[in-house]
Amino acid sequence: MLATVAAAVFMSNLDLFIVNVALPAIGRSYGGSGLGSLSWVLNGYAIVFAALLVVAGRVADRSGHKPVFLTGLAVFTLASVGCALAPNVGTLVAARLVQAAGAALLMPTSLALLLDTTAPEKRAGAVRAWASIGGIAAGLGPVAGGLLVEAGWRWVFIVNVPVGIAAIALGVKVLPSPGRAGAEKSPLPDLFGAALLSGSIATLALSLVKAPDWGWTSAGTLGGLAAAVLLGVWFVLRSARHPVPIIELPLLRVPAFASAAAALTLFTVAFAGMLLGSVLWCQGVWGYSALLTGLAIAPGPLLVPPVALRIGPAVARFGAGRIALAGTVLFAAGILWWVATLDTGSAYAASLLPGMMLTGLGVGMTLPVLTGVSAAALPPARFATGSAITSMGRQIGAVLGVAILVGILGTPAPGHAVAAFQRGWYAVAAASLLAACATVPLVRKPRPAAAKAADVAAAAKTGAA
User: What span, in angstroms and rounded, lies between the C-alpha atoms of 300 and 320?
Assistant: First the structure.
């Protein structure tokens, strides 16, 4: 079961990193498409993923985790074939939207399937293991992407196909099928709410990406930002009244869950901006190949899995809030190191590498810990829905991170690339420091060992009930 879930999570996470590395090559193959158009290869995927995650989580809680997971895996695999065969940017973006729908079905159900078969007192560790799978994909993604792009960027999608087929064949046999008594009578999710959320995020991203061309104070930019706000407000008001909203607002009144979800969203803004920015810097400013770019970026992501897997004792001693707070600050420190040292003639080992190591350490200390906090804050009946909400927040953060960076970079004049990137790095660091502020409510005084043992026993009884 773990092998099947791990394969699916690994594949969907790997896709993020290898597509980032392949983005410049995709642009060249389609006649030099601009960064604004290419950004939708990333953002179109993230928007649909974000809008459908909670819907998918609801459907999974209603219909069963196993069938929804396998359906998502099949859709993702078939859409990967469509991406590989796309004749132009528009077709590629369309195939990526379908791919995102498949990922939205498999991601929350993958964690739910794991938690379905894990004892309550071991669920925090299971969540960290689940998150570390994404970290392993992050570590291998840049190098794998560089190798695949050397053979042709379409291979970054073809590689998903054999993995998906093997996971489906194994999953049919080994995945558990726990009952969903009474769930079939629950109402359907709010699909119109999903459309409102998609419209709000897409309009916001479009306004940010086009602002350098339209002008930051132009009618188009200001009108788009206003429309995004109005759609967002409409979405929140609808969610407050709908019987099955995209976001269950009462869940956001659970303090630990709300703080962790907010911090995850803000941190992913920084993470997405860092990832795309480092790729664009290496290939656009330093002139690296896709493979050399992957090798240059890899040390940071490679730090994530060992940190994520070994962070448990530190969390037990100091508390999840302190660890996540330290992780977000370390990430910001890595970005600010780039502000101070990166230049057209700077040495990799003295400039990019130290910042990449600090950001990798920060990611390993932040993402799995906050994911564990959010999961532990909710009852078992809301595992899939809660996972979908936090994953949705991360995808919204990814859209904003890419859009903000693209909007800041624009098309810098010759000789002004370093200054443009410095402005982008400041924005990335600011997002990480805002995430640090969001973790502050999670910081608690260390508790005696006896009290912690009592909490574990109480959690076990609650999970059994």
Answer: 22
